[in-house]
Amino acid sequence: MADERGPADGAQPGGREQSGPMTEAEPADVPYVAVVGPGDGATAAECAVAEQAGRLLADRRAIVICGGLGGVMEAAAKGARAAGGTAVGLLPGPDRAAGNAFLSVALATGLGELRNALVTGVSDAVIAAGGSWGTQSEIALAMRTGKPVAVIGGWTVRIPAGAGARPPRPASSAEEAVIMIFAALGR
Predict the structure, then answer these.
(1) CB under 8 Å to 34, separation ≥6 — which residues?
(2) Quick one: residue 68, left, alpha or beta (phi over 0 = left, psi -120 to 50 = alpha)?
(3) Least reliable range by pLDDT among 47-56, 125-134, 153-162
(4) What is the pLDDT, as a whole number, of residue 155?
(5) Which residues is 120 bridged to in the sheet?
(6) Domains of the chain: residue spans and CATH
């Protein structure tokens, strides 16, 4: 039975389960990091990198944000959940049930590819594993808004002189990408 202290089952207000002692700085101080990459066309190597990135982010208590479907998105959510973390999927369609099985929270946006702006918009930083047109749009949106981006594999992005954007930083592994992102966020 819940009282003024909150739900009796240990859940936080809004349904978030507590996964360790909360501090005064949480949840505002918890970084939200998007892991983006191909869905159906993702390779096994890209999925392995995304899963490791999700796990490493969760180990550092980051919230993992993704597009909520398969491929890299599913792998990142799987890694985050395996480490006891939270994985939020922003789905392109109107049905929450379309989300992958590893999501902690599935948000059906009904926006199609436009949901990519939400994925980067709610995130503090982006890790891209592999490349696709959707991935490129997420990288571009993150760069346009000044968010740090680490890229593992995928397509090459060349920034025109005078564009004023911070280029994505190439990483050779999920571990290097996570370290880069946390350094860029000052953590």
Answers:
(1) 64, 65, 66, 119, 120, 122, 123, 125, 126, 127, 138, 142
(2) left
(3) 153-162
(4) 83
(5) none
(6) 30-156+165-184 (3.40.50.450)
